[in-house]
Amino acid sequence: MNGLNKGIGKVEVALRWDPSPAGQPPSDLDLVAATYLANDPYGDPAYVVYFDSRSPDGTIYLNRDSKDGKGFGYDEVMTLELERLAPRYARVVVGVAIQQRPAHRTFVSVANPGLRIREGYTDLTEDDFGQVLGATAATVAEFVREGSGAWDYRPGIQGFEGDPADFTRTMGATRRS
Fold it and tell me: What is the pTM of this model?
């Protein structure tokens, strides 16, 4: 590691949204994380973590899962312990997918969505999905292991339109800088 830059260690990705108005089907947003191997950082994910799952080594896990946005504060929270991730992994992409049952949803139809990414007490990103309102899913962060072994954070929201299953297969494609 160079000088004082230790890189990113342990990150919390938190997602919030308000419940749907009375009489409307609930909105269900899901955090998704995909890991990529060092020998194929833009290929197929080595594994994907989402609701009801965690990484095989326990370094990426969902702390809180909501199906309707009811509750106080952040409704869905995922922790990524990057400093514990095996050296064979060089990239982790985090995204948000909107469940499309029982109704087709985009971010514009979700009440008050919000995102916060933080390391410890330092907020790295806060966003309201305003730049991807017509999307059904979005990548929200990319973490890349540098040559020194330290993890670097690359912010940026990139929208996706399509089925959530397709999103998990393509979310790690080359991202815009």
Answer: 0.91
